[in-house]
């Protein structure tokens, strides 16, 4: 029933979609993290107004399905084509690629901002006080003490979010993007051999995530000597 | 201490006073914690600040480096006065940069050490000298190693705080404060979080600092330290200085009833 030769051909075809999958994931994770950092800072330092703005953002983008957000941006905004053309933004919303990146970015920013907020709040006030007491403040305090400690707290949850995002790129296939899942859909339409093709597609995601989880473990290992090292005496 | 009457009308720097506090007041909500505290520390003074819990001694110490902002009063350290301003009901530092600048030269040792958990002991020591004071890194490392040697934990330089005992962590924290080349050292109950058998090693380091003539203000419950090491004792009770003077007189002939009670409550420790 299964045909190794066919699966190998499928694998080679789907492999050509991997760069696009990775590109979608990396772009939206990077952009989303920057947006998330701004949101979490707003939530932590922006007083009641900042907290409400960040809270509303998280509520909307975490509370509605990513697929709906993607449809809204790609198909929904198409209705406002003339307005977007007047604003000079049509080149962006015309491209399914950018619509997918935008939807993924906005969505992951909501989750990541909560992760970062948790990380920031977990920094002990005692360590911050020690830094203030020796003359640190503002950006220096943030860069040298708060961020390094917050990152260590946030890393496991952030790694989880990276993996979720990699898999979420599959949704971009529904707005005509030919990444791994998009290519798989096309192959199925040609051959009707859904089982083999999705097995291969699934295996590709599995392989990517295997590498990603190893890399995350490595980063965690590298960042936490203070948790790892034991008394040697 | 006899030249206290020489404070002139002009606002010139009083060279002998390393720290001077005048009419310090601080409320937390409806609770008035400091009700007009005044005292002076001269260069080389070791002042023990005693008092039962809630007497305001920690708050007073924390005002000296603006970890708490006083509601009113004047704090002068090394000849410089903290600028304060009123915004609504709150008093805040007039110039945050001035506060940062003054803090650079005030070493603070906390009750629970407050070492930075993500840095090795050596990194903890060179953090402020390199990144705040912008001193040469190699020079800071050499100085930090000498300080670690001095407090007896040179072999722990590449360890992380979590892997040290409480006594070692506190000695590292003292070394970290010393690495700032401070004019004044503040100790906020430095031995209160330690197991009894670890208290001695920290007190030994503090004693050696006192002997080399450092200006130290120590909030403590260690009566032996107050009596034997410090040259002045300040006893706070309910936000006012109830009694102050040289330990030899204070401990043998306490004038105030409160201080007598305080001492007798701990008579066995003395």
Instruction: Quickly name the level 1 CATH class of chain A.
Output: Mainly Alpha
- Which spans of chain A have pLDDT < 50 for at least 5 consecutive residues? none
| Strand element count of chain B | 12
Order of helices and strands of chain B: EEEHEEEEHEHHHEHEHEEHH
Please state the average pLDDT score of chain A: 92
Task: Give the number of helices of chain B.
Answer: 9
Question: Helix share of residues of chain A?
Answer: over 70%
In percent, how helical is the residue content of chain B? 25-40%
Outline of chain B: globular
For the biggest sheet of chain A, the summary is: none
Distance between the termini of chain B: 26 Å
Order of strands in the sheet with most strands of chain B: 8-9-10-3-11-12
Number of domains of chain A: 1
Can you count the helices of chain A?
A: 12
Family (chain B): Belongs to the ABC transporter superfamily.
Membrane topology (chain B): Peripheral membrane protein
Keywords (chain B): ATP-binding, Cell membrane, Membrane, Nucleotide-binding, Transport
GO molecular function (chain B): ATP binding
């Amino acid at each position: 029933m299964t045909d190794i030769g066919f699966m190998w051909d499928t694998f080679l075809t789907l492999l050509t979609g991997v760069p696009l999958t990775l590109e979608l994931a990396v772009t939206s994770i990077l952009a989303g993290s920057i947006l998330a950092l701004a949101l979490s800072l707003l939530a932590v330092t922006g007083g009641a107004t900042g907290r409400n703005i960040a809270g509303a953002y998280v509520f909307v983008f975490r509370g509605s399905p990513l697929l709906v957000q993607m449809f809204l941006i790609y198909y929904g905004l198409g209705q406002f084509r003339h307005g977007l053309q007047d604003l000079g933004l049509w080149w962006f919303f015309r491209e399914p690629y950018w619509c997918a990146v935008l939807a993924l970015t906005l969505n992951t920013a909501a989750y990541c901002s909560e992760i970062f907020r948790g990380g920031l709040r977990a920094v002990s006030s005692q360590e911050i006080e020690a830094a203030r007491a020796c003359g640190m403040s503002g950006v220096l305090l943030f860069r040298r003490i708060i961020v390094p400690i917050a990152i260590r707290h946030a890393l496991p949850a952030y790694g989880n979010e990276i993996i979720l995002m990699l898999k979420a790129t599959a949704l971009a296939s529904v707005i005509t993007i030919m990444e791994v899942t998009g290519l798989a859909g096309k192959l199925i339409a040609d051959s009707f051999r859904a089982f083999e093709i999705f097995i291969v597609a699934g295996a590709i995601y599995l392989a990517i995530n295997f590498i990603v989880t190893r890399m995350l473990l490595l980063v965690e290992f590298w960042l936490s000597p203070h948790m790892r090292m034991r008394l040697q005496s | 201490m006899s030249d206290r009457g020489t404070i002139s009308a002009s606002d010139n720097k009083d060279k002998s006073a390393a720290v001077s506090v005048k009419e310090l007041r601080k409320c937390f909500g409806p609770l008035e914690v400091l009700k007009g505290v005044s005292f002076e520390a001269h260069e080389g003074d070791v002042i023990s600040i005693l008092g039962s819990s809630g007497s305001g001694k920690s708050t007073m110490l924390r005002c000296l480096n603006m970890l708490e902002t006083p509601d009113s009063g004047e704090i002068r350290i090394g000849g410089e006065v903290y600028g304060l301003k009123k915004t609504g009901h709150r008093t805040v530092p007039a110039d945050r940069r001035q506060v940062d600048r003054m803090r650079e030269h005030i070493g603070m040792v906390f009750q629970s050490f407050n070492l930075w958990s993500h840095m090795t002991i050596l990194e903890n020591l060179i953090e402020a000298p390199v990144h705040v004071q912008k001193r040469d890194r190699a020079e800071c490392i050499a100085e930090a190693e000498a300080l670690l040697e001095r407090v007896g934990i040179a072999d722990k330089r590449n360890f992380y705080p979590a892997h040290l005992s409480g006594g070692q962590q506190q000695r590292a924290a003292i070394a970290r404060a010393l690495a700032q080349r401070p004019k004044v050292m503040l100790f906020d109950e430095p031995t209160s979080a330690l197991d009894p058998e670890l208290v001695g090693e920290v007190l030994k380091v503090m004693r050696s600092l006192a002997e080399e003539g450092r200006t130290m203000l120590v909030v403590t419950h260690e009566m032996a330290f107050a009596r034997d090491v410090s040259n002045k004792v300040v006893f706070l009770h309910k936000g006012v200085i109830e009694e102050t003077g040289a330990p030899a007189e204070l401990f043998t002939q306490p004038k105030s009833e409160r201080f007598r009670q305080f001492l007798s409550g701990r008579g066995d420790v003395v």
